[in-house]
Design a protein that fits this description.
Blueprint: H1 2-15, E1 43-46, E2 49-54, E3 58-61, E4 64-66, E5 70-75, E6 79-82, H2 88-96, H3 120-134, E7 138-139, H4 143-150, H5 166-178, E8 209-221, E9 227-240, E10 245-248, E11 268-269, E12 273-274, H6 279-295
Parallel strand pairs: 3-8, 8-11
Antiparallel strand pairs: 1-6, 2-5, 3-4, 7-12, 8-9, 9-10
Helix pairs in contact: 1-6
C-alpha cells in the first residue's frame, strides 16, 4: 500500500509539469524579520518585438569621439523579467544563507523598498543564489534587453552635434550633464512610487539605476565607419535608469566614486531575467523528482 501511494505521488509530481513551475519552492517562507510572509518574485513576460537602441560604449573615428550608432534590435523569443526591482528584504534572505555579501550599515531589509547600494558583483551573486535555490536560471539583463523592457522610459542619450567639431561635443555634453534632473531625491521610495511603464514594469527610470550584464566597450572606426578594433572592459558595466551610466563593477555607491563618466546614479539596484526552460528539461527534472520520491 505504501508503495502504491509513493507511485501515485510520483505520477502526480510528473503530471504537475503541465502547470507553471513554482519560482521559489526551496526558500524560507518568511523574510529575515520573521514577520512578513515571503512572496515569490512576480515576472512580466514580454512578447517578441523590436527596440531602437543606441549601442553602449565609446566610439571614435580618426581619433575623434563620435556618436554611438543607432540600431534596431529584434527579439525573436519572449523575455521574462522581474516586475519589481529586487527588494532589500529578498536580498537579505540571500545574505542570511551566506549567498550574498551583507548590505551596507543603515540599509534596512524592508520588503517594500528596493535593495540599493548593490554592486554588480552583489547582483550577480544574488542571481546565482536564487538559481541554486529554486532550480530555475536567473541572470542580469543585457543592456539591449533592459532597453526593450523599459519601453518609453528608455532614453537615448545621443548628442545632436557635429562629430567633426570636438569643442561642440564637449559643450553639448557639459550642458546635458548640468541639466540632468536632480529633483527625484536619493532616498529609495516604496515599490510602485515611480509608476508602471507600458510593459507592466514598476519603477523603471526612477531613482534606482539597474545593473546590466553589458560590459563597457571602446570601439575605433575607420573613415568608412568600419570597426578597426574593439576593447572590452568588463570591470565597468552598464547601469540603466534615467540615463545610461558606466560604473565600476565593485562600486556600491556611485555617488562616492566609480562612475566612469557623467552624473552618477543616485542608487544602484537591479532586477533579473528568468530563462525559459524547454519542455524537455522540465520533463527530465520532474521525472527525476518523481523517481526520487518513489525510492524513498
Amino acid at each position: 500500500m505504501l508503495i502504491a501511494f509513493k507511485l501515485k505521488l510520483a505520477l502526480a509530481c510528473a503530471a504537475g509539469l503541465a502547470a507553471p513551475l513554482g519560482v521559489a519552492p526551496l526558500l524560507d517562507d518568511t523574510t529575515s524579520s520573521g514577520k512578513t510572509p515571503h512572496e515569490p518574485p512576480a515576472f512580466v513576460e514580454l512578447q517578441p518585438g523590436t527596440v531602437s537602441y543606441r549601442v553602449a560604449g565609446d566610439f571614435t573615428r580618426a581619433d575623434r569621439q563620435i556618436e554611438a550608432p543607432l540600431t534596431s534590435v529584434r527579439f525573436t523569443r519572449p523575455l521574462s523579467i522581474m516586475r519589481h526591482q529586487v527588494s532589500a528584504a529578498d536580498y537579505q534572505r540571500c545574505v542570511d544563507t551566506a549567498g550574498c555579501r551583507a548590505l551596507n550599515p543603515g540599509i534596512k531589509p524592508v520588503a517594500d523598498r528596493p535593495a540599493v547600494q548593490i554592486s554588480w558583483h552583489d547582483a550577480d551573486a544574488y542571481a546565482a543564489w536564487l538559481s541554486r535555490s529554486t532550480g530555475e536560471h536567473y541572470r542580469l539583463p543585457t543592456d539591449e534587453e533592459w532597453a526593450f523592457a523599459a519601453g518609453s522610459r528608455y532614453k537615448d542619450d545621443s548628442l545632436p552635434v557635429d562629430d567633426s567639431d570636438p569643442s561642440r561635443r564637449w559643450l553639448a555634453r557639459y550642458a546635458r550633464e548640468s541639466n540632468r534632473e536632480s529633483g527625484i531625491g536619493i532616498e529609495p521610495q516604496p515599490s510602485g512610487h515611480f509608476g508602471v511603464n507600458e510593459n507592466g514594469l514598476h519603477d523603471v527610470s526612477g531613482n534606482v539605476w539597474e545593473w546590466t550584464s553589458t560590459c563597457f566597450v571602446r570601439t575605433r572606426l575607420d573613415e568608412k565607419g568600419q570597426a578597426i578594433s574593439k576593447n572590452s572592459n568588463c570591470g565597468v558595466r552598464v547601469a540603466e535608469g534615467q540615463h545610461r551610466s558606466y560604473v565600476t563593477d565593485f562600486i556600491r555607491d556611485a555617488r562616492a566614486g566609480g562612475c566612469a563618466a557623467g552624473v552618477p546614479p543616485a542608487n544602484l539596484g537591479f532586477r533579473l531575467m528568468r530563462e525559459r526552460k524547454s519542455w524537455i528539461s522540465q520533463l527530465s527534472s520532474g521525472l527525476g523528482k518523481a523517481l526520487s520520491i518513489a525510492r524513498s
